[in-house]
Amino acid sequence: MPFISKIERQSDYHLFPSTTPIVIDNGASYFRIGWAGEAEPRVIFRNIVQRPRHKATGETVTIVGDHDPALLRYFDCTRSGPRSAFDSNVVYQFEIMEYILDFAFDRLGANGSRIDHPVLITECVCNPVQSRSKMAELLFETYGVPSVAFGVDAAFSYKYNQQLGVCAKDGLALCPGFTTTHVIPFIDGEPVYKGSCRTNIGGYHITDYLKQLLSLKYPQHMARFTWEKVEDLKMEHCYIAQDYFSEVRLFQKGDKEAEDKTRCWQLPWIPPPTEEPPSEEEIARKAAIKERQGQRLREMAEAKRSSRINELENELHGLEFLLQQLEHVEEHNIPSFLSETGYVSKQEIESAVQKVTQSLRKAKGEPKGDQAEAEEKTDPATNERFPLINIPDNMLTPEQLKEKRRQLFLKTTSEGRQRAKQKRFESELERERKNQQDEEKRLENPELYLEQLRAKYKDLSEKVEQRKRLKTNGNHTNGNNFSGGVGRGERLNAAQRERMRLLTTAAFDRGKGEDTFGARDEDWQLYKLMSKDNDDDDEGPDQDEAEMARLSSRLQEIDPTFVPKLEIVTSQPVEVPRLRPLTKEDFQILLGVERFRCPEILFRPNWIAVDQAGLDEMTGVSIRRLSPVGQEVEERLTNSIFITGGSCLFPGMSKRLVAGIRMIRPCGSPIRVVKASDPVLDAWRGAAAYATAPQFLTQTFSRTDYYEKGEDWLRRYQLRYTL
């Protein structure tokens, strides 16, 4: 089976005799294997398995423990994530456990699948007999080990530190592990499992809680919060607060002490390139290029202007020559003569001459003459721009009739534009006149003027809002209307009601006979009466809103505290907010309250919906389960509270446990909390030291016992830690 790992394979396996036991610390987080009597395990790796496929060959490979992330780019990991053999702290996936043991024995240096050494393997407190029997079956049937011994990791760590003088024979072993936390009482050096207790809280939950908090705080950097990186942040920066709420209030104040306790993780960030100001040579070069481009454009414009002047001069000469020929033509031959030229009358030709002359003067840059300016000021109908309008239709050809209709349309459009321009001019004059009158009133009495202006603006805004509200309230009827709305009949003004009356009269005053509407000329006057142009209600809102806008601008000029209505503000274009460039601070992850909030779940599991006791409460539960043992024994237990396991490495753990246990114990009880010399490796070292004892083989479960006694003997099997 191909393995991918960066752990080197041991080469001295054959040097150890078959009586030397192999010691395995099978933790939920890390797997440690080595030889009995040694100070350090030979192989340490994470207790996970991943089986991806190679992208090129399709071969399935087994990745056990830590791996090089650079290698994963060659494999398809979408269908195979990291898997563990543990459920909480109990082994239940023995297929995965087999991959892990294969890899562990292979890296230890074993050749072949048979292991000829006794095995001492750790397990959790009160491990189910089903899990223990499956593990024994795997070791005996698959690897052929001669004998197996099962022991509790926390007990091995306690006995090892007892030999070092760290803890006494009587005490409590508190082991916050990866997924669970156990408390085991020891009396006379032996664990008393009937007084042990467990809480399903460990280092895994702290890491997961920290990952969730950072993802909520910095959602833009969520991809950066990998499990391995958050685990490193937890072990490097988290600590246990002696008083959680005092620590929270310290960070709420935000003083210098809180800033000193805040840690910063700087993500990779590349500053944007700064644009240096151009040099004088670069400015001169760009100016020269711009001058050349301008000169080229001026030359092109001059050439185009010369060509245009030539065209206009040729056209003017042609029109003047046509007028000269027209003087020699008799009156009755003029229509036939002009039909060949495309003109209708002599006046049209003279009008064309004037237009060409004005265009020529404009192209040459000459000032306009007095006559041209006077003609522009006069009405367009008087300058013979539309000569076909006054000619009867029977005197025009079909092409000229089309031209006449076009001239009628152009004349109407031109007159409409002139009227609109004049109306705008008059409205501007009226606006200036009103502003001037308002300014005079303001100078006479500023306070009274401001009060009147505000009152007028308020009345107009209420009027406009009421009109808009009535227009939008069109789904209600008059009848039993309990919603407070009004019907359509109540919202119509006088002009609209008059239109409705005219429509009703036109439809029903003729009776049920033949419909003769339109036969008389006065019938068509109804359309003029019903025209929306004569409806004052349609023009009213526009005038009110215009006056409201004028008052709003006036109030903004003289009153800095004035806030316009929402309708006026929203009618103006909204400025789109600009995105600021990213800076170095945008790529910083600040760890403040998260440093002590995440480990706090060891003492308050209900924060993550685990309704169980915390670490300090578990000691009281364990002592109560041992009762009645006497007050003297309880004092000896609390005088030697031993903590081990990876989650006890947080700074402040011992002081917080002392404070918490003191609150649940009688006043004056001796309380002493000691930490293992190495909370991570002491379990394996204790097991390795235990396996070197001469009486170790008497505590093992041999292959013969397995075949003869079966699982029932495993149910009663219990290792004695005092040899």
Brief summary:
This protein is 48% helix and 10% strand.
Share in helix: 40-55%
Strand content: 5-15%
- SS-derived structural category: alpha/beta
| Gap between N and C termini | 40 Å
Q: Could you explain how this protein is built, in words?
A:
It is found in: Nucleus. Helices cover 48% and strands 10% of the residues. It is of the alpha/beta class. It has a six-stranded mixed beta sheet with strand order 4-3-2-11-12-21, with helices on both faces. Helix 12 packs across helix 13 (446-472) and helix 13 runs antiparallel to helix 17. Mean pLDDT is 83; it is low at 371-383, 474-490, 532-541 and 567-573.
Task: Give the helix/strand layout.
Layout: E1 3-4, E2 22-26, E3 30-35, E4 43-46, E5 49-50, E6 53-54, E7 62-64, E8 75-76, E9 86-87, E10 90-91, H1 94-108, E11 119-123, H2 129-143, E12 147-152, H3 153-163, E13 171-176, E14 181-187, E15 190-191, E16 197-199, H4 203-217, H5 227-237, H6 244-253, H7 256-261, E17 263-266, H8 280-327, H9 334-339, H10 346-364, H11 370-377, H12 398-444, H13 446-472, H14 488-491, H15 494-508, H16 525-529, H17 536-558, H18 566-570, E18 588-591, H19 594-597, H20 615-626, H21 631-638, E19 641-643, H22 653-664, E20 673-675, H23 682-691, E21 701-702, H24 703-709, H25 711-716
Parallel strand pairs: 1-7, 2-11, 11-12, 13-19, 19-20
Antiparallel strand pairs: 2-3, 3-4, 5-7, 6-8, 9-10, 12-21, 13-14, 14-15, 14-16, 17-18
Helix pairs in contact: 3-23, 4-5, 8-10, 12-13, 13-17, 20-22
Short descriptors:
single chain; alpha/beta; 723 residues; nucleus; 21 strands; six-stranded mixed β-sheet; ATPase_NBD; Actin-related protein 5; elongated; 25 helices
